[in-house]
């Protein structure tokens, strides 16, 4: 049966699917949680600096993935 299945290609597809299919939504959830979670705001109602930095980093990675995917598709990627 192994002559019909390319195991390395299958592994790459599964790994990419896990990263994109589960990793990016989880990263988005971490960013939202950093901004809106318990203890995210100080007494004045402002978001704490460390939490804002975590949220910005999470959202920047997500935006970079989206832009990278659009560029890849527009360049004729397969």
From TrEMBL:
The organism's place on the tree of life at top rank: Bacteria
Keyword vocabulary terms for this entry: Membrane, Transmembrane, Transmembrane helix
Transmembrane region(s): 12-32, 53-75
The protein, known as: Interferon-induced transmembrane protein
Species of the source: Demequina zhanjiangensis
């Amino acid at each position: 049966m192994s002559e019909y299945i390319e195991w390395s290609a299958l592994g790459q597809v599964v790994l990419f699917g896990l990263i994109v299919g589960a990793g990016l939504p989880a990263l988005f959830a971490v960013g939202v949680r950093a901004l809106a979670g318990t203890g995210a705001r100080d007494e004045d109602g402002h978001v704490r600096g460390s939490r804002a930095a975590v949220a910005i980093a999470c959202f920047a990675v997500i935006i970079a993935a989206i832009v990278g995917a659009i560029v890849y598709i527009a360049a004729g990627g397969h």
